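Question:
When you can, review this sequence-structure pair and walk me through the tokens.
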Amino acid sequence: MVEWITSDGLTGYLDACRFMESRAGLIAKGEAEECIWLLEHPPLYTAGTSAKPADLIDPGRFEVHTSKRGGQYTYHGPGQRVIYVMLDVGKRGRDVRKFVQHLEAWVIATLDQFNVTGHIREGRVGVWVERPDKPLTAQGTPSEDKIAAIGIRLRKWVSFHGISINVEPDLAHFSGIVPCGITEHGVTSLVDLGLPVGMDDLDLALRRTFDTVFV
């Protein structure tokens, strides 16, 4: 069984980290169910284990938190659905690469519920969408924007941290960092793509598609 928790309002980042660490420890001991936690954070930047100091462009803009998840700098804030994934990877094959692929597939299946085609790109972490409404790149390929970020940590084969999907955040807030160290592509959201999607709509889609990926 997987417990689903949805938090209203804005959840502090340090409070979230404390909860995840505690819950992951209990899952590893067999004392708690796996957990998916849906929430929003106040505006903040987090630095993953591969973050480069030069990628924090505006350090005084929002709180900056050092995170032990994988990845580089990312933004969290209102209008972005954060999905913290506390799952027992040890019981799900002990294959970290495959687990991350399942997270990617879950995001793509969820976006498909809104007729949005998500893509995985070699060398670019996260999920991307093509932007035919924007000019072609210098290489003559379609422009692409990032719509979802993925960064996890494992302890005793239990995952925590997870995914963020942009529903309707203030996209200008991403300008204080180089998101995930990538400069040649932008960031988008479901609403930015012209879709009248709310947080509740996304939550329903996440629940509907979870069991199609994580069997």
About this structure: The chain has a mean pLDDT of 94. The longest strand covers residues 143-155. DSSP finds three helices and eleven strands in the chain. Helices lie at 13-28, 96-112, 199-213.
